[in-house]
Amino acid sequence: MNILVCVKRVPQTGGRIVLTADGQAIDTKFLGFTVSPHEECGVEEAVRIVEAGGGSVTVLTLGPAEAEDVLRDALAIGAERAVLLETDGAEWDPVSTAHAITEAIRAQEAANGPFDLIVFGNESADTGGFQVGIRVAVALDRPIATGLKGLTVGSGSLVARREAPGGGWETYELALPAVVSVKEGINLPRYPSVPGRLRAKRKEIERVAPVRPDAGVAVGPAKAGLRVPVEEGAAVEILGRGAEAAPAVVDMLARIGVLR
Amino acid sequence: MSGSIVYVEHANGAADRVSLESIALARSLGGPVEAVVAGGPSAGLAGVAASLSAHGVSAVHVAEDARLDAFAPEALGAVIAQVVKSGSPGAVLGPGTERGNEVLSHAAARLALPLAANVMTVSADAGGWRLSRQRWAGSLIEDARLEASVGMFTVAPHTTAVAEVAGAPAAVVTSFTPNLTDRDLRVRVTGREPAAEGSISLTDAKVVVGGGRGVGSAERFDELEELAGLLGAALGVSRVVTSNGWKPHTMQIGQTGQRIAPDLYIACGISGAIQHIVGCKAAKRILAINTDPEAPIMGRAAYAVIGDLHQVVPAISAAIRQRSSTS
Lengths: 260, 327
What we know:
The structure holds 2 protein chains of 2 kinds.
Chain A: E1 2-7, E2 9-11, E3 33-35, H1 37-53, E4 56-63, H2 68-76, E5 81-86, H3 94-112, E6 117-121, H4 132-140, E7 144-153, E8 157-163, E9 169-175, E10 178-182, H5 194-202, E11 206-208, E12 222-227, E13 237-241, H6 246-255
Chain B: E1 4-7, E2 10-11, E3 14-15, H1 17-28, E4 33-39, H2 45-51, E5 59-64, H3 73-86, E6 91-95, H4 98-111, E7 115-125, E8 128-135, E9 140-146, E10 151-155, E11 172-176, E12 189-193, E13 207-211, H5 222-231, E14 234-237, H6 239-243, E15 264-268, H7 274-280, E16 285-290, E17 303-306, H8 309-326
Parallel strand pairs in B: 1-4, 1-6, 4-5, 5-11, 6-10, 7-10, 13-14, 13-15, 15-16, 16-17
Antiparallel strand pairs in B: 2-3, 7-8, 8-9
């Protein structure tokens, strides 16, 4: 089975978000980058499917030259090929991103044969547009199930499992070729091994110029700026230090009605 | 028409809350607000449609089709696209729920229109829309513009208040059979499993005890489990705990896990990365137990104990036991 996984490189944010002086981006001077969590699980899931049943995993991202790192992470755990739709680092809106990915998939399939399965993360951790996978599936006229936390691939079809609103689970059956979007929790991604990392380092990454939608196609939304929400933070009351704080904690629990 | 069309999700014959919030945001745009309600014959669509009058909806398009008795995102997107094409709305809104985002994305893709997901505010300006929307699950706000013949938006949950309109006239309800092909219905729910019974649900719990990196290992959660047991609390964890395989992902609190809203959240050995905070910021109070008084969680906490959770948590459990044996 040939599987394509689309991933996104996002900042590895910590305790608080600091913006650049112009308010256009997260200040990443002191931050690392990582693959968006849902997509990390997407790569793991694809590698497991191929390990069990044969085939090949290709990983693709749209991003700056540095996004090569998240592709190499995927190569290190078992992806075979990697494609970078290289940008100048400016953000691409969801319509344009979906268009560039769709065109890249068409070119990849024309050159290397069709993908049986295309995997996205349910939403990117940073911009959270919730739509790129669906737009690509609709453009390619393939079925898509989203928000998945379970995937069983058979011959010619797959069964997908998703958390139902209000609790429990619901399942979908999709004919292949299909598109899915997955969520963290579908698996526990492995850490790359040292030999895996060395192998990934030597692999070639295919660089492609991403294609914008035709003029006249409505794209967006267009970012004007970013803000950190204002939080009404009350001062913290220190109840004590170490084990000696226990009586003060119990008093507090009684005061707020947790202990009667 | 100008004005807005709102896609309304429903369950058990009632409109869902975030859909009602979406109607309230649509009304703030001015102009008439119409609604789309879709489902099978047993979904109680007439009742859902009638209930929307009180929220200021002037007309409801009811799409009834037996094939929609199971959730079918692509078909629901097609229904919205049909309603949009048969009128001339200025804007289309829907709930920023998992399903709402999915269905509106299908509709937007079919209509070749952009979509802004999880908006908090929207207003019309010359030639387009000005909006604010959530990034990083609400840890960051984006101000943006959208230019399109029809503005499409999903509404971030709990950012606009539901607003009923006193004495609103009854909405005009129009039923129609949507034009759906088998292809539109190729993805639909084909099976269901009910939730496991008995366990305390993280999302409903009044008290949650959370453990993070500071717990140190899978085995050492016993101290937190003991405290949770004494308080009748649910046990949750931060992402590092599930990434390390110490606990299953279903227990994760945060951007990629559960959102909790307890009266008290006891965060033990959790530094408070923003991805964790978005999962617990609805807690009424946080008690942070951490060795680091500078940890970001302290900025969110009402109460704190500075110290090693492996000393503090057992001491609290012991003090609770002592209190119940002497009272």
